[in-house]
Amino acid sequence: MPVRNETDWLTATIGGEVVLMNVKGQEYIGLDEVGADIWDVLKTPHSLNDICGEVARLYRIAPDTCRSDVNRVVDMLMQQGAAIDER
Amino acid sequence: MTTPPNDVLALKTGPTTAGENLRRAIETGAVVAHADGKLELAHPRRQSKSWMFVDNGPPLGCTFLIEFLFPHVYARTAVPHGCSACYKVKVVPRSLRELVAVWQVAKGIACRSKWGTDLDNPYSPNVYAGYFYVDSVDMAHAAAKVAREAFARDAKIGADIPMTIKRGCSEYEALLGPSDQYKFTPEMAAMEASLKGHFQKPPAGSFDRARVLAHWIDVAFRTGDETYLDFTGGRRRRAKMVDYS
């Protein structure tokens, strides 16, 4: 399942903290450091496996270690409409 | 725990006694009196979407003072004794860019402070503000000096950022007159100490930092402060509307 950012969301980085804002509505999402990295990866379509690989590379950990975090963040982004399934 | 003693609540700073004020607050449902003598606000203020807090100091206890004592015990006729030593250094950033810069600098100053938008404050003419909380006017002058020197070293701020020193909350001064005329008595201190033991603090909810930061961006956009684009990679908060003029 390739996932990418929905383009209706802008990224604001303020004082080192990241918040996504829907440019068409009032919704917002706060991201922690890992969430912000996942958001960055999703600028282009990636499968969940590829996202895990990218996060694992960034944090120098095994991909399986971050799989649950990646699933949680991607699920949340999709539920909020900030990320979409490319299929 | 018993209820607060009646003699303590006989204090009168306006047309009615503190006891009468508190009884009225309980009768109207603003304050809940529990069987164990605890007193609780029925509707504590909701988390502000305006402020980020820098907790470089002990808690202030403002909920007890301005949400409980001032409206429900003093019936807005006197400033609580617990606020007598409260002074604030107010900093007035002129843009979101400057607000974020002063907030970051304040994290390194050993003084409790808050930073954010003042637009929803009916007593302020400013869009953005920051407040350092201190315990005396002398400390306020010292804190202002330290802050101004730190701000002067930051290229995004500069030494000319507007700063003032005020006493207590603006709501007090708006309702009761000049803060250099406030009257505080030992009886007020005694009553407040007694009531403090009965006051039940509202539960601390989780603080939604993203809500505050999103609000800052919204306020900047809505007031025409385009420095918010610094933080969005140049992307606009809203698409431009078609202009038919």
Description:
The complex is a heterodimer of chains A (87) and B (245). Chain A has helices spanning 33-41, 48-59, 63-80; strands at residues 3-5, 9-14, 17-22, 28-31, 83-85. With 87 residues, chain A is an alpha+beta fold. Chain A has a single domain (3-80), classed as Arc Repressor Mutant, subunit A. In chain A, the strands form 2 sheets. A 3-stranded antiparallel β-sheet of chain A has the order 2-3-4. Chain A has a two-stranded antiparallel sheet with strand order 1-5. In chain A, a hairpin with a 5-residue loop joins strand 3 and strand 4 (28-31). Chain B is α+β, with helices and mostly antiparallel strands and 245 residues long. Chain B is built from 7 helices and 8 strands, in the order αβββαβαββαβααβα. A 5-stranded antiparallel β-sheet of chain B has the order 3-5-6-4-7. A 3-stranded mixed β-sheet of chain B has the order 1-2-8. In chain B, 33% of the residues are buried. The interface between A and B is medium-sized, with 14 and 21 residues.
